[in-house]
C-alpha cells in the first residue's frame, strides 16, 4: 500500500516521556486488551498540537505529574506483530515539577509508579511494546538531542 497507488497509509504518531526522580523512572501500569502492562507516560498526538505539548499533556493526564521537557531522546518506528499497526514514537526526557494526586488518570491507567531501571528491565514481559525498553535504554545510555531539533510550524 502506498500513496502512488492511490491508497493512503500513515502510522500512529505517539509521544512518550522518560521522567526520572531519585534514580527511578516514572511508568504507568495500564489495562490493554485485558492485560496489565507497563509503559512510559505516552499517547497519541492530537490535531493542532505540537509534539512537545502532546508529551507534557500525556504525562499529566496519565500520571498527575507536570513536567519540564529537557531533551529529545529520539524517534522510534515499530509495527505491532499482533495487528500490523505501525507506530512512530517521539520520545522525550523530562524533569518532574509538580504532582497533583487528586487528578483523575486517563481511562485504562491503573496507577503511576516509580521503578528503578533494573525493575523496569525485569518486567520486560509486561512492557506494552519493545519501545518501552528501547527508549529507556537509549535514555540511560545518555542519548539526548536538543528540543529545537523538532520544529512546529503553524
Tell the overall outline.
Answer: globular
Low-confidence stretches: none
- Please tell me how large the radius of gyration is: 16 Å
Work out the strand percent. Answer: 35-45%
The major sheet is characterized as:
7 strands, mixed
Number of helices: 3
Mean pLDDT: 95
Helix content: 10-25%
**N to C succession of SSEs:** EEEEHEEEHH
Counted beta strands: 7
Which structural class is indicated by helix and strand composition?
alpha+beta
Distance between the termini: 29 Å
Q: Would you spell out the secondary-structure blueprint of this structure?
A:
Elements: E1 12-21, E2 24-32, E3 35-39, E4 42-44, H1 51-63, E5 65-79, E6 86-99, E7 109-115, H2 117-122, H3 131-140
Q: How would you describe this structure to a colleague?
A:
Strand 1 and strand 2 form a beta hairpin. The protein is globular and about 50 Å long. The mean pLDDT is 95. The protein is of the alpha+beta class and 154 residues long. Strands 1, 2, 3, 4, 5, 6 and 7 form a seven-stranded mixed β-sheet that branches.
Annotation keywords:
single chain, 154 residues, alpha+beta, 7-stranded mixed sheet
What's this, in brief?
The chain has 154 residues and is of the alpha+beta class.
Amino acid at each position: 500500500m502506498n500513496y502512488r497507488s492511490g491508497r493512503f497509509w500513515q502510522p500512529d504518531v505517539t509521544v512518550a516521556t522518560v521522567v526520572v526522580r531519585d534514580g527511578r523512572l516514572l511508568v504507568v501500569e495500564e489495562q490493554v486488551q485485558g492485560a496489565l502492562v507497563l509503559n512510559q507516560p505516552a499517547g497519541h498526538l492530537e490535531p493542532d498540537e505540537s509534539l512537545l505539548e502532546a508529551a507534557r499533556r500525556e504525562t499529566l493526564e496519565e500520571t498527575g505529574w507536570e513536567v519540564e521537557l529537557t531533551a529529545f531522546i529520539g524517534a522510534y518506528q515499530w509495527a505491532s506483530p499482533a495487528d500490523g499497526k505501525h507506530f512512530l514514537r517521539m520520545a522525550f526526557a523530562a524533569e518532574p515539577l509538580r504532582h497533583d494526586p487528586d487528578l483523575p488518570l486517563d481511562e485504562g491507567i491503573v496507577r503511576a509508579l516509580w521503578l528503578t531501571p533494573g525493575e523496569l528491565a525485569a518486567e520486560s514481559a509486561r512492557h506494552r511494546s519493545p519501545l518501552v525498553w528501547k527508549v529507556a535504554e537509549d535514555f540511560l545510555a545518555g542519548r539526548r538531542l536538543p528540543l529545537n531539533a523538532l520544529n512546529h510550524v503553524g
